[in-house]
Amino acid sequence: MEEFYITLVALAVGLVLIGLRVPVGLALGTISVVGIGVLASWSTAFDLFSSTAYDVIANWELSAIPMFLLMGELAFNTGLTKDLFRAARLWVSWLPGGLAVATNFACAGFAAASGSSLATTITMGRIALPEMQRYGYKDSLACGSVASAGTLGSLIPPSIQMIIIGIFAQISILKLFIAAIIPGILTAIVFAGLIVIRCIINPSLAPRDDVKATWAERFRSLSGIWPLPFLVLGVIGSLYAGIVTPTQAGAIGATLTLSLALLRGQASLTGLRNALQNTLTSTISIFLIVIGAVLLSRLFIFGNVPDVLLELVSQHIQSKYVVMLIAICVYLVLGMFLDPVGIVLLTLPIFIPIFDSLGFNLVFIGIIIVKLTEIGLLSPPVGMNVFAVKTLRPEVPLGVIFKGAAWFMVADLLIIAALIAFPSIVLFLPEFMGL
Questions:
Q1: I want to staple 320 with a disulfide (CB 3.0 to 4.6 A). Which of 44, 294, 358, 410 is the partner?
Q2: Highest mean pLDDT among 55-64, 265-274, 316-325, 409-418
Q3: Among residues 275, 237, 255, 250, which one has the least CA distance to residue 167?
Q4: pTM of the predicted structure, to 2 decimals
Q5: Which candidate, 179, 147, 151, places its Cα nearest to that of 166?
Q6: Are 377 and 151 a contacting pair, CB within 8 Å?
Q7: pLDDT tens digits, 377-424
């Protein structure tokens, strides 16, 4: 047990370092190398560090991450998403809080091309926040709805988080993508319903939009958004048909996005350069976290963490749903301080063996983990989506944005409860498609 306690101390030091704003990858890598050095030997620690760094970078499966990141960046920087908000607005402007509802569904649409919550929040926020401000929407509703709808970028496939979960938990990425479709649509509908109900109860939150759209205008607006469903069908369809691997699907997605931009005359050298630069920056950031997390998993092995936890669970916890409740609490607390990728990679080596031993379907667990990290994107004090909205509306106090996002956090918790109570919501589509 001594090794176990040493590992726990190392993990606690790592969380403190992260709390002090040390980059997640650096903090995890440092405590892992030191911990392995103490438990085994320093030569073992440094050998693992050098081999792990190479293995992560050279991992063919991880090349799906930059490919899907590039797909989202190309979609944004070439303007393929600019008609999303307009189309959504024409279709739902008659609803109470119509602009916020339009933002919600536009975020859902862009999520299908971005794979990133932060990218979805910033992209749609740039378009929607000025419009809601112009129409007199309360800042809490406007900013809260953008921050919250942006979390759909992590849930609606293709998702960078799901790729990471699939690779490191040995779960089919295609199954995760398919399983996320119904929860993603459900989340978007619940968020829209929450906006409408709040605006009915308190009309001052959102003055009614004066757009009077005919049915002909509404259907014409759909002509500008066809590239996104085309991209989704191209990526998910090629995966489902078994034509390509997840990595190849990412490359196909990026190629299709660039081809569509060229076909529509929306590609430019500036846009391409920005897309490549942003993809490179995001990839480096994610890979550094991955290296640190893989080293941490090695430390857990030296410290016998999985074996000790499995023994504790089997001896002292009879209900698997109690374990689920404990995991939910852990994810909610970590979400207050860490970014989603860091949370996923930090917790997978601990929770996946436990959930597997308790008989949970790991595809179902993967979707629940993504949902929980969505809440973390909105949680104070380090809700990344909230801070992203703050950069777009610097005059709005952070407290106002967090207050607006809190309504959607409650809705997310209710959705998670529904998914746990009725796992078929997650598992129906993969089973129906024979996956």
A1: 358
A2: 409-418
A3: 250
A4: 0.80
A5: 179
A6: yes
A7: 888 876 778 888 888 888 888 888 899 999 999 999 999 999 999 999
